DNA sequence: CACTCCCGCCAATTA
DNA sequence: TAATTGGCGGGAGTG
């Protein structure tokens, strides 16, 4: 009896009920699995108990006081518990006896045992790394705190960091939702992208020149003209911030955590010393560098590092330098992000240093660029932060909202970064510097790429041209966000390109597309226009969903930048049509996400439609689902699937979904999308067959783009099956696709200028409007109408309308289109919002054409602001 | 003594 | 106004 009581009593401390429950549960579990504890997967809901979990539970069960002892025990027991599970209950409790335990245990509670790292491990042990997508695990702060026997404050520390990596998301007050590591890969990818933009080369030199870097950073800030930055900031902020003013959150542990992780991801060596990290982080945050601030920062970093260590993402190491040895952390998490969600960590990264030469190049490069980057970085962060502020508000809604917010946040960051980057690039460009490239070269990228030359290339490129030439480079280029290369890619004419905004397709999904394309495309030539039209239609359809998701997923826009990927892809294609793009592409994608849009300084905004991966992939999908109605669950999975499928995709069945999506799309939400954003998130789908022709393209140099593809935001995919389908094909490059591939179109358009690229995105919706109009704009593009995206689109649209049936396979698509337009005839009315929102790009301004196309009548031009307004009006948000 | 980093006050935010 | 979040830094434990 005594024992019995004890057990109960113990828990009681702070937690009244819960503890008890736990204990009970524990008991239960063990019983259940007398045999083998294994995991109890079935445990449906709320309590996913696993062997480990049991342990934890046990531990927690004890009252705080007890806990200490427990901890000690823990060390030993874990195994036992897991294995036997069983009886231990009683035994444990017994052990617990006050007297006995206390004695030796009391002492124990050393500081270590209370460490945040250990606490975090316990916390993590309670939840599965890869929870079933179906079930949502909610975390109650109070409960966890009580169970783990710590004050809430500590739990916040843990949760905030986990939240920064999207392992959890805040659902409501005191409530968090456990997501597990499914999306970790994507999150890291994004962070990496964002990190490259922001920190870029800095990390490269890290070791040697930490100080220098630091200094540089500051200089840069000073040096750089703020004016440029400002715009960016403003830009971004409005969206995000509008809602909330950031401020305090800037320093938030969450943000610090993300930045910290970014440093690792960007670092070649994967080792970051605390002081450097602190310096960098302080910088961003603010100016003053008080010693005290530094100290505080370091303290926080320790907090973060402890959690990350528990996650197995980093480990503590020491770096010895001239001055002595410094505490540092080494990234031991995944280095390459397949794009897929789950990541495994695996390789520990060794640092493979670049060849000296390269290094040198990089370093130099850095120097030049750095300043700019800094700015960028700076601004971006701010914006991000601001966005974040919003997030907290949350609410009541469970799941989705929160995540969305997060996603947004991320996306915003990315976007910002992209924007910044663009600016920088431009600046650089102006200055004659090559900087843009620098990024590209990032070591990491090289890895991804198949290319042989990766790094080296980059540097080189800078020197001369960005462009095309680099075979290998391509991939690298792709990776790089900004790069001019893209521009070049298109024709080789740098000129044109440079400013144009591109669409980015960040996600891996692209790959798939490409691969398919090539094959098909290559062989095939251009499809007929009609096809194009159809395709385009499809594309549109596809897009919408994406948009929808986006919208749903985040408020702000994101970012995305235009995608450079495409260009890269194109290039590849051009260069080597035969090659399987896929390889290359993929990487690019990532990077591409960064892509920027236009350079035009002023207008960063291109509007790319981008979605962010993050959201999409992971959270977004689900969210979308929720919102939409359709199937929430699987979104993610679907996405994946869809991606995988690639070309195939979309079967007719999807239609419905599309439609729905489309509708949703309409909503203004899109607006959020920042102008800048690229499409990053979209995925292109190509049908295998489709339009091969596109590739060939021809006329333009870049044929590739044309590939018929559908761009779909990943998220969208998830929710929707995609669209795409098969048919798309985009005809030729330019044309139809244009929409999609911004790049392709871009070329053409570029010339014209405007960067329109973004347009594509608009996809379907857009289409309508255009229909009639069609062409006016196109002209530019020579080769095919495509270019003009707009025209093309228009065409496609029109075609669709007309032909839609043609589209063949995709009736669905058509449907969608129509629907949206509801009044098919005049899409405008309806569309406008959408279109604009997505597509608009401020930057694009220049090119009326392109935009117009998308805009059709509407709004294209509307300034970003306008868009927003519109959106707001329409959209619920 | 230098690192780490626990602890918890208390302000900012939210409910 | 009460509760929740979470910045912050004093200062203690560790090696």
From TrEMBL:
Chain intervals with Polar residues compositional bias: 81-93, 474-489, 856-877
A GO cellular-component term linked to this record: RNA polymerase II transcription regulator complex
Sequence segments annotated as region (Disordered): 1-94, 223-243, 380-407, 473-493, 619-659, 841-877
Primary residence: nucleus
Location(s) in or outside the cell: Nucleus
Record family assignment: Belongs to the E2F/DP family.
Annotated keywords: Activator, Cell cycle, DNA-binding, Nucleus, Repressor, Transcription, Transcription regulation
Annotated source species: Pitta sordida (Hooded pitta)
Protein name as catalogued: Transcription factor E2F7
Residue stretches of biased makeup (Basic and acidic residues): 65-77, 223-232, 637-648
InterPro entries: E2F (IPR015633), E2F_WHTH_DNA-bd_dom (IPR003316), WH-like_DNA-bd_sf (IPR036388), WH_DNA-bd_sf (IPR036390)
Molecular-function GO terms, alphabetical: DNA-binding transcription factor activity, RNA polymerase II-specific; RNA polymerase II cis-regulatory region sequence-specific DNA binding
UniProt keyword Iron-sulfur, yes or no: no
GO biological process terms, semicolon-separated: negative regulation of DNA-templated transcription; positive regulation of macromolecule metabolic process; positive regulation of nucleobase-containing compound metabolic process; sprouting angiogenesis
Chain ranges of the E2F/DP family winged-helix DNA-binding domain: 111-180, 248-333
């Amino acid at each position: 009896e005594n024992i019995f009581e004890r057990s109960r009593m113990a828990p009681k401390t702070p937690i009244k009920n819960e503890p008890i429950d736990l204990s009970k549960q524990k008991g239960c579990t063990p019983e259940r699995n007398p045999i083998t504890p294994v995991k109890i997967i079935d445990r449906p809901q709320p309590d996913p108990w696993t062997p480990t979990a049991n342990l934890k539970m046990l531990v927690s069960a004890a009252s705080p006081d007890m806990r200490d002892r427990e901890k000690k025990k823990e060390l030993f027991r874990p195994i036992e518990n897991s294995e036997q599970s069983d009886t231990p209950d009683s035994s444990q409790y017994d052990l617990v006896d006050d007297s006995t335990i206390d004695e030796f245990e009391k002492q124990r509670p050393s500081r270590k045992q209370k460490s945040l790292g250990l606490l975090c491990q316990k916390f993590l042990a309670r939840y599965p790394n890869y929870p079933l997508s179906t079930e949502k695990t909610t975390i109650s702060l109070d409960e966890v705190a009580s169970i783990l026997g710590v004050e809430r404050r500590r739990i916040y520390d843990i949760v905030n960091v986990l939240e920064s990596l999207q392992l959890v998301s805040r659902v409501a007050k005191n409530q968090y939702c456990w997501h597990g590591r499914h999306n970790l890969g994507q999150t890291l990818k994004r962070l990496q992208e964002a990190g490259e933009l922001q920190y870029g080369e800095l990390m490269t030199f890290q070791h040697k020149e930490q100080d220098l870097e630091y200094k540089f950073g500051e200089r840069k800030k000073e040096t750089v003209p703020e004016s440029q930055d400002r715009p960016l900031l403003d830009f971004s902020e409005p969206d995000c911030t509008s809602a909330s003013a950031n401020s305090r959150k800037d320093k938030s542990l969450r943000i610090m955590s993300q930045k910290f992780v970014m440093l690792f991801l960007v670092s070649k060596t994967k080792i970051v010393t605390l002081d450097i990290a602190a310096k960098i982080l302080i910088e961003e945050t603010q100016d003053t560098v008080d010693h005290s601030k530094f100290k505080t920062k370091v303290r926080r970093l320790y907090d973060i590092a402890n959690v990350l260590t528990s996650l197995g993402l980093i480990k503590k190491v020491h770096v010895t330098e001239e001055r002595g040895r410094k505490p540092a952390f080494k990234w031991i998490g995944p280095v390459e992000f397949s794009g897929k969600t789950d990541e495994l960590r695996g390789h520990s990264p060794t640092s493979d240093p670049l060849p000296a030469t390269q290094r040198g190049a990089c370093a130099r490069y850095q120097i030049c660029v750095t300043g700019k980057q800094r700015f960028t970085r700076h601004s971006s962060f701010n914006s991000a932060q601001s966005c974040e502020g919003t997030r907290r508000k949350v609410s009541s809604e469970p799941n989705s909202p929160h995540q969305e917010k997060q996603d947004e946040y991320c996306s915003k960051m990315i976007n910002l970064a992209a924007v910044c980057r663009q600016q920088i690039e431009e600046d650089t460009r102006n200055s004659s510097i090559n900087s843009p490239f620098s990024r590209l070269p990032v070591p990491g990228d090289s890895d991804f790429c198949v290319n042989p030359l990766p790094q080296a290339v980059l540097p080189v490129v800078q020197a001369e041209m960005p462009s095309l030439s680099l075979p290998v480079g391509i991939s690298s280029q792709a990776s790089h966000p900004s790069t001019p290369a893209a521009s070049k890619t298109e024709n080789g004419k740098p000129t044109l390109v440079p400013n144009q905004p591109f669409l980015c397709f960040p996600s891996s999904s692209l790959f798939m597309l490409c691969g398919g394309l090539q094959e098909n495309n290559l062989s095939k030539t251009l499809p007929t226009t009609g096809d194009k039209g159809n395709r385009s239609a499809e594309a549109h359809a596809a897009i919408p969903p994406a948009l929808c998701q986006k919208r749903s997923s985040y408020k702000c826009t994101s970012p995305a930048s235009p995608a450079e990927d495409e260009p890269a892809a194109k290039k590849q294609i051009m260069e080597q049509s035969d090659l399987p793009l896929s390889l290359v592409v993929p990487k690019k994608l990532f990077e591409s996400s960064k892509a920027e849009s236009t350079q035009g300084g002023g207008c960063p905004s291109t509007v790319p439609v981008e979605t962010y991966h993050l959201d999409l992939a992971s959270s977004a999908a689900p969210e979308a689902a929720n919102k939409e109605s359709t199937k929430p669950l699987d979104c993610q999975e679907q996405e994946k699937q869809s991606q995988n499928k690639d070309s195939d995709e979309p079967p007719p069945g999807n239609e419905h979904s599309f439609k729905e999506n489309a509708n949703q799309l309409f909503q203004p939400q899109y607006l959020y999308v920042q102008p800048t954003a690229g499409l990053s998130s979209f995925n292109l789908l190509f049908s295998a067959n489709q339009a091969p022709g596109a590739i060939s393209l021809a006329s333009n140099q870049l044929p590739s783009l044309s590939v018929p593809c559908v761009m779909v935001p990943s998220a969208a995919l998830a929710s929707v099956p995609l669209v795409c389908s098969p048919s798309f094909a985009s005809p030729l490059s330019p044309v139809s696709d244009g929409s999609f591939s911004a790049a392709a179109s871009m070329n053409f358009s570029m010339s014209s200028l405007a960067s329109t690229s973004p347009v594509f995105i608009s996809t379907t919706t857009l289409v309508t409007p255009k229909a009639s109009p069609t062409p006016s704009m196109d002209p530019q593009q020579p080769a095919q109408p495509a270019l003009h995206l707009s025209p093309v689109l228009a065409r496609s649209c029109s075609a669709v309308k007309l032909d839609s049936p043609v589209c063949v396979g995709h009736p669905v698509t058509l449907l969608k289109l129509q629907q949206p337009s509801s009044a098919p005839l005049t899409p405008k009315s309806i569309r406008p919002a959408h279109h604009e929102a997505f597509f608009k790009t401020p930057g694009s301004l220049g090119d009326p054409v392109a935009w117009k196309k998308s805009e059709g009548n509407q709004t294209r031009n509307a300034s970003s602001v306008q868009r927003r307004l519109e959106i707001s009006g329409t959209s619920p948000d």
